[in-house]
# Entry
Amino acid sequence: MLSVILIWIYLCITTFVIGYGVLRVLTRHLPYYTHNADAYLMCGLVCVTVYAQFFSLFAGVGLLANGILCLVCGVIVWHHRKGFWETVRRLALPAGKGVPGSFSVWRLSVILVLFLLFAYGTSRGMIHYDTGLYHAQSIRWIEEYGVVKGLGNLHCRLAYNSSSFALSALYSMAFLGGQSYHCAAGWLAFLLAVFCLPAGASLRAGRIRTSSFARVMCVYYLVNIFDEMVSPASDYFMVLAAFYIVIKWLDLLEREEREILPYGLLCVLGVFLMTVKLSAAFILLLTVYPACRLIREKRWGETGAYLGLGFVTALPFFIRNVVISGWLVYPFTQIDLFDAAWKIPNGVADYDAREIQVWGRGYTDVSQFDLPMREWLPGWFQKLAGSDKLLVLAAGTAAAALVFWAVSLLWRQCRQENAALPEADRAGVEDAAAQGGAVRAALLTVQGMTAASFLFWLCTSPLIRYGCVWVYLTPAVVFGGIWDTLLYDSAFSSGRQGGFFRRQTGRFRLAAGRLVSVLVLMLLVYKGAALTREIAGSYVNDYWIFQKDYEAYETRSYEIEGVTFYCPLEGDQTGYESFPASPVEAEITFLGDGVEEGFRAAPNLL
# Structure
């Protein structure tokens, strides 16, 4: 646990400083002032991940990469020392001490408790099955060599390129000579736990907004993965980052943020999310809202800036894809742009893509890939846990409800435009409608994105851990958004169409808000009690100094062109220590004299 805390402190300092430096540059040209520490930390997390990926193109991500990172941080702090320390002071000092601050003493105390709790959870727990299968090996390849041509030929899952592996390698501290630590997923979980704290105030006040519903589902997910976040699985990074993007977007709407910059940066964060796990690509639908505003207002310079940021964020991911597999997007062979000598054969890639999909549907036989949805969906649904069944049904219902809600909003807007109102009333109604229309458009964008992501996941490879974020967020954002609009959108209730909700402003809102608050608190208390019992039941007086290491597996050695490789005696997991390894004896040839030169498939596979 102590090792986790020390790495987290280092991770926090470096990501905050890098985030501060990048946002300082951006806001100099696109004026905007952020008051939240999470913005600096998340911006820095994205930047250091992109940096680690670029660095891996030239060398292993280890001591030198961290040395350069620390040097850059030092330059930023020295060059902007006055502004930097003023920002730290403003964010760190408790509010009410003479300096506007982000935290009260009580809030800081809660954050400290969460810090220790999540450090405890990150120091021990269950190592994900896929971590022993390929996560650990992928991270070690990045630590040792960076990127290797045709690595996916050694084991196709090593071609599942995720930017989260580069982040884990950067902060693994393997170059110190001890174990390779894996603390980044736990750090992101801790950040999200802190980010969800405002939901408590909303629940106590009985004023539940859309962001509150989303935060409750995020807490539900954090409780579920508390004993698993010790694993550097890309699923956790993807889900947690997706929760952050959606909740932050909703926060901006609820405070009626009119500047485009924060929405644009969230879209860049969406590009980063796609590099963590490509199945999250529908997050890019969020770009519709800021893009429409930028184009309508003819702000071409800003448009180019956001496109440039997105391009830089995605570039190392796609370069690594090509180097590792020979494909721009592995294992999808529909995009075939390169003819590299190390390219994974089409047949292997196609088989791998189909295996992913049938596995998510509950099958292990790839020949059942072509089964129509009406045949595999009932069996898949029956195998879900009870709570997952309810959440999937709620998400499906929400996706259908969103269509009717969007149609009703359009119909209502047409009626308001054609309504015969006195001239004095018309001006007020039009102003309120314009202001409320912009907010509802941004809300519909995020609602449509979550619903589309859910439907895409459901129709392709619906394994819960692949897309649980969309299962959780779709009902929260859709039904929460409808709730929010009906109860708190004054523009929606203006004019002749105000109706029931405009007349029942105070008493109904308070009663409804308190009822929902009680129900949500009951859910959180139940999950909290379950987590407490789980922690107490599994408590062992260990891992207080060093984090739980990767699982070890029995392996045997074999040679290819004089180089020793490993494969498991049983099963298909090899872990971290036996390196380089694959689930079975690989059929490869070397591109050069050693493993650092890369691999190509054996002639019999071509």
